[in-house]
Structures are given as C-alpha cells and as structure tokens.
Backbone:
C-alpha cells in the first residue's frame, strides 16, 4: 500500500475532481442511484445544492447530504436544530443530487479550499478519498458508538487504512432476495428460506411463466447494479475478487482458483438468464420495478426497496411477498454496503463535526433515521436488528411482523454473515473503491450475456481493467 505522502502527491498531480469522481460515483441515495438512503433527487452537477443554515455561536458545521427527499430534509433539519440548541454549534445543511452530484460538489469545494466538514457515503464509494489523504481519522467516534450501544460493528462495515478508521457506520444495506410466495408454492412446490444455488435455479425455472411473469431478473445494464450482482454471487461461491500479497492488493478474480470461481459464477448467471426478463437495460430503478409491476416472480436487490415500493404501488404484491436468504453455494454469505459518516481533513470546524457525529449517532436520532426506510436501512450492529427499539415501526408492524415468510431472525443472520468488497482483505482494500465505481464487473456480465464475448475473454478484460485502475491509484 502506498504511504500517505505518496497519496498526497497523487492528489496534487491528478486534482481533487478526478479523485472524488472515482470515489463517489454511483453513491447511495435513492432507487435510481443506489441501494441506500431514501432520496428522490437527480444529478445537480457542481453548483451548490439546496441549503439551510441553523445559526450558532461556536462556528458552523457544513454537512453535505445526497439524501435529498423531503423526509430526509425534514429529518436533518429537525435534528440539526436540536444539536445547535444543545451545543451552540451552527449547522449548514446542503442537499445535492445523488452520485456524481455529490462527488462533483465535494471536489469543487476541496479545490476552493473550503470543503464541508461532513458527508455520508459507503466505503466502496468513498475509499478513494481515504486513499488520497483527504479524510480525517474517526477512530475515537467509531469506538464511542460501539461503547454507547454496547454492541460491536460487523467489522466489514468499517473502513481502516494505515491504522486509522475513516467511517462511522450508521446503517447497512445488504443483498435481499424477494419472491412471490404464491408463485413459488404453486410452481416450485415450496416457499424458499435458505436455498442453495441449485435449489434456487430449479425454483426460478419452475416459476418462470407462472401468472405470465418471468422467473427472475438478471441485471446487466452497464451500471453498478450489475457489478453488485457479480460480487454477491462471487462471495457466495467462496471466491476472492481481491487479495493481499504482502503489502500490496492484487486482482485475483482472473487468476487460478478464483478465476475458476468467476467462471462458475458467470456460467450460473447464464443459466439464470434463461428465465429472466431482458435485463440488458436494468439498473437500480428497473430492478425494483420489475417486482412490484409483476414482471418477475423473484428479484435480488440490495435492501428492502422491492417490498417498500410494492406497498406504495401494488399492495397485492406486497401481501404475497416473501424474503429468502441469498442463495448460497460454497459460503452462506452475501454482499453488503455500510453507509457512514466521513469527515474532511482540511475542514475548519472538525471539533464541531465530531460532536455532530456523536449527537446524530445516539439511539433516538439514529433509529428515526433508519425508520425513514425501515428494513432497507438496517442497524450496523447485527445484535441491534431485533431490538424492539428498532422494530418499533409502523411499516414493520404492518408488513413484516404478520408475514410468516419474512423473518427478522433471518435478517439478523444475514447482517452477521454479510461481507463488503473493501473488507475482503485485511487490512481493508481502499483500491476496491475506484474499481467498483468504474463498474468493471458489471460490464463483464453485460459482455457475456449481450456482448458476444466469451466468458474467458470477459474475465481477461475485467481483470486487466481492474488492475489498470488500481495501478493508476497506487503510484
């Protein structure tokens, strides 16, 4: 791993815009931009987003958020006002569009020498910032949060580099496989709970065409949804995407035993694709809609959006929805994202920002945040998922507890077993962030299914591209 002074030289050489675009592209925020959050905003470019300032006499904490739905705006304004009243710090809230809007705005502020104190992002999408030395150490705040709750984080939800912790997790999104209970019972003869790959494939085949719906949806648009689809299956197959060789991180999905694992994943996806809608243009929003609009009898997504939007758009589907653990082959694991606070090292009011992180991470504001998108945004502590304080929610009371095919104890197990791409190596792999953001592995799926490319050629291309991206960040 490159030393910190090397990272800073790289930042000066390439400019903050390039670093942040690679780091935050596709950042979580809404059903179009990614798995997390709950906003409905689009890409607003580099201009300042909508702002709200709460005055205080101890300086101002600038928090830039990509969560720009009305629910999130109201939430952050409410708690920022309470924070200001309690501590005397002022808060400037700025809401930007998801994904490239967030990265472009942060880049512009960094270049101007006036970065925000805080934003939230996933390590897969913000790890490049830590790699370039623009983030501040939040080790004390992460330890404070564990002590506050008396729980331990799933270590994969953290992000550590050179002994410093750069993310304080506030929620996790993870793979969830949603299915039509009646279709599976009628077509496959059972309601799945913890299927292996073969059982799942047979079920998808048996339910293909039931009620004129396809068996599943394989996302293959050149977007991050398809990248996550590959990562999820690779983890379930016991394969490695990255590995450490001494102090260096290497791409291994195209080498040796891990190449064999990747080939098995792509061959399995080809089989699933026989019973899928045409997913060549399916990214996040299309993936969700395929379920509630009754195109498919099963969908994989990174959270509970398919159920939530079924409740909003087609309650008959929501009433007939079950949740299975992600199908497994070699390992009963799956992909997850943590979303957390990050703080910028050049910001002026880091003391106030640290206080704001602790204030917002207390149980009352944190659980209220999670309840904006319940069961979609889950506590970052596995042991907190079945806390009554978290489960005390109208959506969960009405749509989860009464449903025999959605089990909270399964969700607890899923949070315990979840893995993240940056947590694949020990120490964390910061270089996973730019590779992930370039959608290298999603393009591999598209090339195999729709690009007239052989599996071996697609693996070679993905491995070479991933290595090239990492070389650019590590020199």
Residues:
């Amino acid at each position: 791993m490159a030393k910190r002074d090397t990272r800073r030289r790289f930042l000066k050489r390439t400019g903050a815009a390039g670093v942040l675009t690679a780091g935050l592209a596709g950042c979580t925020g809404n059903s179009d931009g990614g798995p997390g959050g709950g906003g409905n905003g689009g890409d607003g470019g580099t201009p300042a987003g909508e702002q709200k300032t709460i005055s205080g006499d101890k300086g101002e904490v600038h928090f830039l958020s990509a969560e720009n739905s009305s629910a999130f705006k109201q939430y952050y304004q409410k708690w920022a006002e309470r924070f200001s009243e309690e501590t005397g710090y002022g808060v400037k809230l700025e809401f930007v569009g998801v994904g490239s809007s967030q990265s472009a705005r942060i880049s512009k502020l960094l270049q101007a020498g006036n970065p925000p104190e805080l934003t939230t992002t996933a390590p897969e999408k913000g790890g490049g910032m830590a790699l370039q030395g623009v983030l501040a150490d939040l080790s004390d705040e992460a330890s404070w949060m564990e002590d506050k709750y008396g729980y331990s984080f799933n270590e994969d939800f953290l992000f550590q580099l050179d002994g410093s912790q750069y993310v304080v997790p506030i929620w996790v999104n993870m793979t969830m496989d949603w299915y039509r209970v009646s279709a599976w019972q009628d077509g496959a003869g059972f309601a799945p709970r913890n299927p292996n790959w073969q059982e799942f494939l047979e079920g998808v085949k048996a339910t293909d065409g039931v009620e004129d719906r396809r068996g599943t949806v394989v996302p293959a648009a050149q977007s991050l949804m398809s990248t996550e689809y590959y990562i999820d299956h690779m983890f379930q197959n016991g394969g490695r995407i990255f590995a450490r060789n001494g102090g260096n991180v290497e791409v291994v999905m195209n080498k040796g035993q891990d190449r064999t694992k990747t080939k098995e994943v792509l061959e399995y996806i080809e089989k699933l694709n026989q019973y899928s809608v045409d997913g060549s243009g399916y990214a996040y929003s299309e993936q969700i809609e395929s379920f509630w609009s009754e195109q498919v009898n099963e969908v994989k997504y990174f959270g509970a959006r398919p159920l939530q939007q079924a409740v909003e758009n087609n309650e008959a589907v929501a009433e007939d929805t079950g949740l299975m653990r992600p199908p497994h082959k070699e390992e009963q694991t799956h992909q997850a994202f943590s979303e957390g606070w990050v703080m910028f090292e050049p910001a002026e009011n880091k003391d106030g920002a640290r206080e704001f992180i602790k204030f917002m991470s207390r149980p009352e504001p944190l659980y209220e945040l999670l309840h904006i998108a319940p069961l979609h945004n889950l506590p970052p502590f596995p042991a907190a998922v079945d806390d009554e304080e978290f489960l005390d929610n109208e959506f969960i009371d009405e749509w989860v507890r009464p449903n025999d095919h959605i089990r909270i104890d399964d969700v607890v197990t899923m949070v315990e077993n979840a893995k993240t791409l940056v947590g694949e190596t020990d120490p964390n792999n910061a270089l996973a962030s730019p590779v992930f953001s370039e959608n290298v592995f999603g393009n591999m799926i598209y090339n195999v299914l729709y690009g007239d490319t052989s599996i071996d050629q697609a693996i070679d291309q993905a491995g070479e591209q991933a290595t090239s991206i990492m070389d650019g960040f590590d020199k």
Notes: The first strand starts at residue 29 and ends at 30. DSSP finds 21 helices and 18 strands in the chain.
